[in-house]
């Protein structure tokens, strides 16, 4: 039997093999990670756990493994970002508006991973309604706390883990879970993966079902996975993705795909585009040095670096912060205290009930984005702001397609800096700018990922972003895997 003290150092692939060979049981693995979550609850990563529910799932997987009927991920523990609804755990999106909500069904991606054999450890903190880039805007108290807390970066507990999937990134980096789900609207998987030194991937828009995902911006939201390595992400993504056209109108009608199939292929001759706009003003010197070092590793493996231009990169932030708040304003309108969400106890009439309920239950960042979104959709401003932003969004997508004529993948930093101290960014725009490099792929619906690429100042992680054309996740993961075969950046762990 495997010594369980080493379980949290295993990746998904290794742990799945140990479980299949009965060297460790699913119940043992589940208990180990639940204990890890309790031991390190000061990080604030988990919003809810239910040990009985987790162990019941684990026992069921052990029974299937004993019969030789286990799925590809049989018994592997996973934790879910709290924007994916679950029957056995509360789902709040870290929002007081949804405090205590229990869904009557599981999100499609939760169900898909369960069908593959994954065992749910619990739900993970995020920025309220996934609106934020630091996980400082969580409105629900994490396990072990009496009041809402920011999630803390396992590499330095005084710093942010990134957002909005900060709880997912922190949990994986700290070994509280071998893998986690995340959602990525403008970089919410890739940026925290960079800041926490793990691997995370957002697939092509439409690859993963949005059914059961609490919506932020529907034309941008996409589910993905976060783990230690590209191999682990490939295994998870193969089970997570698949068509769901009857329940999600944006789901792509493509059969499930084995994203591990190209992992053994080298990168010799691969053309990697390097956008000059990603290496200009705003990129911190320590991050630049780490990214350039990672690109040199690709060259050593036989890839060819190709200078490219994405001339509208500087417009990605304003475009995103017109379109996403507009969609958020529409999506969150249903949360009015009548049928959904928190209802104020004291109010004079119907309008006052709406006002009081939403004032009490929405956080400041959510209110800010609702107000921006309502403004840009209002009469007299729709054409000037929202319609114009959609036009520029198309131009940004066209820039990326033009670049792919000269390269196979695009590479650059996932974030302009390493993790910053909690509370140090008081101007919201400073946090918005941390997504400058991830936004173009989101606006274009392209698959993108962040892989560890060394360290910057204070020994903090730096992530290399890789972007591929639509439905080229297998190529993306293969390139990342080859880099990880040649380097050890993804194997480094924070000292908790």
Explain what this protein looks like in three dimensions.
This protein is of the alpha/beta class and 496 residues long. The protein has helices at residues 12-20, 26-39, 51-66, 108-115, 166-173, 190-196, 230-240, 285-300, 316-331, 350-361, 364-377, 382-403, 428-432, 439-444, 473-486; strands at 46-48, 77-81, 119-124, 179-184, 199-202, 222-227, 271-275, 304-308, 409-413, 448-455, 461-467. 58% of the residues are buried. The chain has a domain at 4-240: Alpha-Beta Complex (Amidase signature (AS) enzymes).
Question: What are the SSEs and their pairings?
Answer:
Elements: H1 12-20, H2 26-39, E1 46-48, H3 51-66, E2 77-81, H4 108-115, E3 119-124, H5 166-173, E4 179-184, H6 190-196, E5 199-202, E6 222-227, H7 230-240, E7 271-275, H8 285-300, E8 304-308, H9 316-331, H10 350-361, H11 364-377, H12 382-403, E9 409-413, H13 428-432, H14 439-444, E10 448-455, E11 461-467, H15 473-486
Helix pairs in contact: 2-3, 5-6, 7-15, 9-11, 9-12
């Amino acid at each position: 039997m495997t010594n369980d003290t080493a379980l949290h150092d295993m990746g998904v692939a290794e742990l799945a093999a140990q479980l299949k060979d009965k060297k460790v049981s699913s119940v043992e693995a589940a208990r180990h990670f639940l204990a890890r979550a309790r031991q390190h609850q000061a990080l604030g990563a988990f919003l809810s756990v239910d040990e009985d529910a987790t162990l019941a799932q684990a026992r069921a997987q052990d029974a299937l493994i004993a019969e030789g009927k286990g799925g590809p991920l049989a018994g592997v523990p996973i934790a879910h970002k709290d924007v994916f609804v679950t029957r056995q755990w509360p789902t709040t999106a870290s929002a007081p508006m949804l405090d205590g909500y229990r869904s009557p069904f599981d999100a499609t991606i939760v169900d898909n991973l369960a069908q593959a054999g994954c065992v749910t450890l619990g739900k993970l903190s995020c920025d309220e309604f996934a609106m934020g880039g630091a996980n400082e805007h969580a409105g629900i108290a994490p396990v072990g706390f009496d009041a809402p807390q920011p999630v803390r970066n396992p590499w330095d507990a005084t710093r942010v883990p990134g957002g909005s999937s900060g709880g997912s990134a922190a949990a994986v980096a700290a070994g509280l879970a071998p893998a986690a789900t995340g959602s990525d609207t403008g970089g919410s998987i890739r940026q925290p993966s960079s800041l926490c030194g793990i691997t995370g991937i957002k697939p092509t828009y439409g690859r993963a079902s949005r059914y059961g995902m609490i919506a932020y911006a529907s034309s941008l939201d996409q589910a993905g996975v976060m783990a230690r390595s590209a191999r682990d992400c490939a295994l998870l993504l193969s089970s997570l993705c698949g068509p769901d056209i009857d329940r999600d109108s944006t789901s792509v009608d493509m059969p499930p795909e084995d994203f591990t199939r190209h992992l053994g292929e080298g990168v010799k001759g691969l053309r990697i585009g390097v956008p000059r706009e990603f290496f200009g003003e705003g990129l911190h010197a320590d991050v630049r040095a780490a990214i350039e070092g990672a690109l040199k590793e690709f060259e050593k493996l036989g890839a060819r670096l190709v200078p490219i231009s994405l001339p509208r990169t500087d417009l990605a932030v304003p475009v995103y912060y017109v379109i996403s708040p507009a969609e958020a304003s529409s999506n969150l309108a249903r949360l009015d205290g009548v049928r959904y969400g928190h209802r104020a106890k004291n109010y004079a009439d119907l309008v006052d009930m709406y006002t009081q309920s939403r004032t009490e239950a929405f956080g400041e960042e959510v209110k800010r984005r609702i107000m921006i979104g309502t403004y840009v959709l209002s009469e007299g401003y729709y054409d000037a702001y929202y319609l114009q932003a959609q036009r520029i969004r198309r131009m940004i997508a066209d820039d990326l397609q033009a670049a792919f004529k000269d390269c196979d993948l695009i590479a650059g930093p996932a974030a302009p800096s390493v993790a910053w101290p909690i509370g140090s960014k008081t101007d919201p725009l400073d946090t918005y700018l941390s997504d400058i490099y991830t936004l173009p792929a989101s606006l274009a619906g392209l698959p993108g990922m962040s892989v560890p690429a060394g360290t910057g100042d204070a020994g903090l992680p730096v992530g290399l972003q890789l972007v591929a054309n639509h439905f080229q996740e297998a190529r993306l993961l293969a390139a990342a895997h080859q880099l990880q075969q040649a380097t050890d950046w993804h194997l480094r762990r924070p000292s908790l």
